[in-house]
């Protein structure tokens, strides 16, 4: 192709020829999945501080962010020595293993997904976490058969599901007197309204928001005298 007209002669009009790359059809691009979960999360405090935890590719798995856990355990007082804890949607184990790292005497991790449960068992072995029990199964089924009482229950189900409505009516049977209940949701929740009102005696203690995550700490109050 001529780079410009020569002196005294009219340049012929040039038709650009597309390159082979331009002629080839564009390759389809994979659909973007939105907010991807991190490859790893870490324990933020206690005996296993900074220990990474693997995040498996499981449906609905959404690890609680580090800064949310930092806030939660500030509310709880940092150490949980002697507490009995239940994590009903354990996922990576970030909440339950955080509790064990801070001295909890017993932590039960309930997880339905087989790959996530296997990762939890591997983390328990790697940490030599004797206080931690991993249960592969359904949260509501576990509550229906449980005989233990817990001082702290974590409820972090997949957003957009009806899991809170399923499990909360069964929760009262496993709460110790004065127990704390931590709930994550995609909307703010009030203890006096469904679904939290399914557990009599739950009172709001603290609540906050980080991005799309609304998180709540509730305390089980004793019934009034004569009630």
Topology record:
Layout: H1 20-23, E1 40-42, E2 52-54, H2 66-76, E3 84-87, H3 94-101, E4 106-111, H4 114-127, E5 132-136, H5 139-145, E6 150-155, H6 163-171, E7 175-185, E8 202-210, E9 213-220
Parallel strand pairs: 3-4, 3-6, 4-5, 6-7
Antiparallel strand pairs: 1-2, 7-9, 8-9
Helix pairs in contact: 5-6
Structure overview:
There is one protein chain. The protein is of the alpha/beta class and 227 residues long. The chain has a domain at 81-220: Rossmann fold. Helices cover 23% and strands 24% of the residues. It contains six helices and nine strands. The protein has a seven-stranded mixed sheet with strand order 5-4-3-6-7-9-8, covered by helices on one side. It has a two-stranded antiparallel ribbon with strand order 1-2. A hairpin with a 2-residue loop joins strand 8 (202-210) and strand 9. It is globular.
CATH homolog superfamily of the domain at 81-220? Vaccinia Virus protein VP39
In the sheet with the most strands, the strands line up as 5-4-3-6-7-9-8
Mean of all residue-level pLDDT scores: 85
CATH fold category name of the domain at 81-220: Rossmann fold
CATH structural class of the domain at 81-220: Alpha Beta
Question: Can you summarize the main beta sheet?
Answer: 7 strands, mixed
Mass-distribution shape: globular
Query: Radius of gyration in whole Å, from Cα?
Result: 26 Å
The secondary structure category is alpha/beta
CATH-level-2 architecture of the domain at 81-220:
3-Layer(aba) Sandwich
Beta strand count: 9
